[in-house]
Amino acid sequence: MKKILSLVLLAGMVSFYACGPNKEQQEAAEKAKQDSIASVEKAKADSISMAMEAEKAVAIEKAKADSTRVADSLAAAAKKPAPKAKAAPKAKAEAPKKAEKPAEQPKSPGRSGGTKTK
User: Fold this and answer.
1) How many helices (H) and strands (E) does the chain have?
2) What percent of the chain has pLDDT over 90?
């Protein structure tokens, strides 16, 4: 009985080893893993380049808007006649302010803590 059991266990171990991936399958799995890593890196680089292009486009649009705003304000300024300078009003002599009295502080009720009643 022990010999049969040990032969069955030995046959099971050999079959597990035989069913495992061979050298070609291991190489194919490693290649697939490397391809997957390469595709992720490429997607990351593409995403970064697209973000940089979008940022550059936004900067160009902002520069165009700023230059248009400046040109419009210069054109509006050129259409208006220059305003005449007004004379500064004379400063009035201020009367010296009276010194204010400091506010009186309320008297404390004393040590008794209560109010005086008769």
Assistant:
1) 2, 0
2) 42
Tell me how far apart the alpha carbons of residues 47 and 54 are, in angstroms, rounded to a whole number. Answer: 11
Give me 103's structure tokens: 């506010």
pTM of the entire predicted model? 0.42
Distance CA 17, CA 19 (A): 6
DSSP states of 36-81: HHHHHHHHHHHHHHHHHHHHHHHHHHHHHHHHHHHHHHHHHHHHSP
Contact 77, 71 (CB under 8 A): no
pLDDT tens per residue across span 67-98: 999 988 888 888 876 566 665 566 565 655 66
Q: Do 21 and 29 touch, CB atoms closer than 8 A?
A: yes
